[in-house]
Amino acid sequence: MENNLPVNIREYQELAKKALSKMHYDYINGGAEDEHTLRDNIAAYGRILLRPRVLVDVSNIDMSTSLLGYNMPSPIIVAPTGSHKVATPEGEVATAKAAASCNSLMVLSFSSNCRIEEVASSCNAIRFYQLFVFKKRDVSSTLVRRAESNGFKAIVLTVDTPVFGRREADIRNKMVASPKPNLEGLISIDDLNTTGGSQIEKYARDTLDPSLSWKEVEWLKSITSLPILLKGIVTAEDARKAVEAGVAGVIVSNHGGRQLDYAPATISVLEEGCASVDAKGERGDKTFLSKKTF
């Protein structure tokens, strides 16, 4: 049996395609429009070559780093993704336990299928909370308060989704929005039944705020003492603005190619973003991530 275990991410991906429904596999695996950025996110790594240096003692290797003062054995963390119960009955609780077993940091998505409190109590680990700004500001502020009271150490504000990306596979498959228990009593998804298109796209259109601007960063700073990171930065100009806005950090991201197609591959703009932040603040070490870590 052990000989049949997958040996790389691609083989796990093939197993997932067999195990999941087409709708859910396409949702997890797909991107926006022509999926150019989705493909280039991976292809861009193939354009980066390593310059190996030899005759160096590698018997003891230290990959440890720190983020906002929290020590980690490696710079690999779990990015915010929602709807984990599509893949496993335990949902984000299973993901949190896996991250904790590796002493890795997890960023919990606002659209998780498990409650904030449930994930927080499942294991002892460092966690950040990912937030969207909703049209109803009290929804966002309530989620921030719950994250604070349950020991989350930072707020990760996603800033590249004022409107939902056009994900054509989801439209064709009539993607159904999964339960979002953290929004119960705040936003209802009961009235999202549609006769065509993606239900999750309609949910985003009805709830997310397209007027999102730098003013919302100031608003978020006014309601929490937790450090704030902005996720979705791909230009040096916006990285500098983020530093000037007083956030704790930026996450260079194009939303996995799921938002604006033909945006640059993340790795291709990482150096640009880091260099611009270097001029005004502190950054962590740049890290080479194999495409097989995705």
Automatic annotation (TrEMBL):
SUPFAM superfamilies: FMN-linked oxidoreductases. It holds the Pfam family FMN_dh. GO terms for molecular function: (S)-2-hydroxy-acid oxidase activity; FMN binding. Residues 1-294 form the FMN hydroxy acid dehydrogenase domain. Its EC number is 1.1.3.15. It is an enzyme of class 1 (oxidoreductase). The keyword rRNA processing does not apply. It comes from the Eukaryota. Transmembrane segments: none annotated. Its main location: other. One of its GO terms (cellular component) is peroxisome. InterPro entries: Aldolase_TIM, Alpha-hydoxy_acid_DH_FMN, FMN-dep_DH, FMN_HAD, FMN_hydac_DH_AS. GO terms for biological process: defense response to bacterium; hydrogen peroxide biosynthetic process. It is found in: Peroxisome. Its cofactor is FMN. Keywords: Flavoprotein, FMN, Oxidoreductase, Peroxisome. Belongs to the FMN-dependent alpha-hydroxy acid dehydrogenase family. This is (S)-2-hydroxy-acid oxidase. It comes from Triticum aestivum (Wheat).
